[in-house]
Amino acid sequence: MSGQDMRVVLAEALASVAPEADFDSLRDEEDLREALELDSMDFFNFIVAVHKATGVDIPERDYPELATLAGAMAYLGR
Amino acid sequence: MNEFRMPSLGADMEAGTLVEWKIAVGDSVRRGDVVALVETDKGVIDVEIFDDGVVEALCVTPGETLPVGTVLARLTGLATEEPEEASTPSRVPAARPKPPKRPESPEAVTSTAASSGREAEAHATPGARRRAAELGVDVMQLTGTGLDGRVTLADVEVLAGFANGATAVELPAASPAPSRTPADDPAAAMRRAIAAAMSRANRDIPHYALFRDVDLGRALEWLADHNARLPPDQRLLPAALLAKACALALRRVPALNAYWHDGGLQPAEAVHLGWAISLRGGGLVAPALHAADQLELPVLMQRLSDLVSRARRGGLRSSELAEATCTVTSLGERGADGVVGVIYPPQVALIGIGRISPRPRVVDDAVVPRPQATFSLMGDHRASDGQTGSRLLDVIDELLQEPERL
Q1: pLDDT tens digit string along A27-67?
Q2: Phi and psi (nearest 5°) for B82?
Q3: B277 to chain A, minimum CA–CA distance in Å?
Q4: B309 CB within 8 Å of a chain A CB
Q5: Which contiguous run of DSSP H or E holds residue B64?
Q6: What span, in angstroms and rounded, lies between the C-alpha atoms of A62 and A68?
Q7: Does domain B2-187 have CATH number 2.40.50.100?
Q8: Within an 8 Å CB–CB cutoff, is residue B231 touching chain A?
Q9: Given a cut of 90, is residue B340 above it in pLDDT?
Q10: Where in chain B is the domain with CATH 3.30.559.10?
């Protein structure tokens, strides 16, 4: 999956949990939960959406690696 | 013949705007069907009907803002059904006025109906005053269930129902819209609704608060082990365990799973757990997880996730907003350590859960780090005492020490 594709997947996953969020102003290193005011359930649903779109399993212990866009891109790119 | 009225979706709702009909004249409807979309201070709500029947007439058109209690549609084919409340035993009505004090004599009617001055204005809404005048009753004698305890049109209509031997009273379709229109600024409207409900709760309810630090080590270990074997969409969040423990505990301490009506405790027949969800635009909503004590954890988790999604994007159902029997406010992983909240009337208790964090705890004479959360119980002292509240926290703690049994 190309970097651009990954960005689209992540944007769609975030849009599904935070429809009112402004994805364009989100910086790569920003903490997603802080920036988009995601609670535990939103973050859970974000992980589920990414899993469904990519097929990547993402064990619970790896959740912190998906805390930022940059982190999520690196994780999915492995 | 039966009537479908603008429902009261909580103590803070006075009116709603019909957005769309989901039914047409001639349609058959069943209890629980979504028949209309209504805009309220809590967003656009899917409104369900309480009876089976055939739609005979739609009395209002989309765009109209209507007080709670306004007849929206008429149904036929309900030969075996009693009016709404009798046919839905599991539903505790959201508002119940005092039984009517009927004037003793014609003179009394004249004198009481005449008190329509400034006092009456503060005590009742314009629609309620007008209807009361038509019926010749004194609004000052009614107990209000509206914002700030004001008498609403719905209160007068229920009174009219009692007075006429439960014959439903027809309301003109073009009843006056309240000054407040939820549609123009949703965030501000929600703020006002919360302000009114919470001010009333804080004024009327003598709260007591109790605390318990619960060791969640075993629960979290069980959860990690459970989740390690499952794909992301089937995993559980700690919130599911906490909600289930609260629901089971409420079943065992029914005095806290109840409503306070007319100076008396009215126990609920099921545990419909309210779950407070904060909205990013500001404000919060606490829809019910129906019969949460009966749900297996995976189902409860799914329902919770669905509830949060619909709170965010719209599509909460009227039964979810009107029927919570006790609310839980969980601050989440990044919240504060504990919470003293305000009970949402007519409920009689609020369970607070602070964030889960590692803290020192004495276990077998040694101080060890354990993941813990501070649970709090706000109780309505009119309805229960600290002993009952303590019992609830005891049971929650006990249940969370055996997560595999939840």
Answers
A1: 999 999 999 989 899 999 999 999 999 999 999 999 999 99
A2: -85, 170
A3: 9
A4: yes
A5: none
A6: 12
A7: yes
A8: yes
A9: yes
A10: 205-405
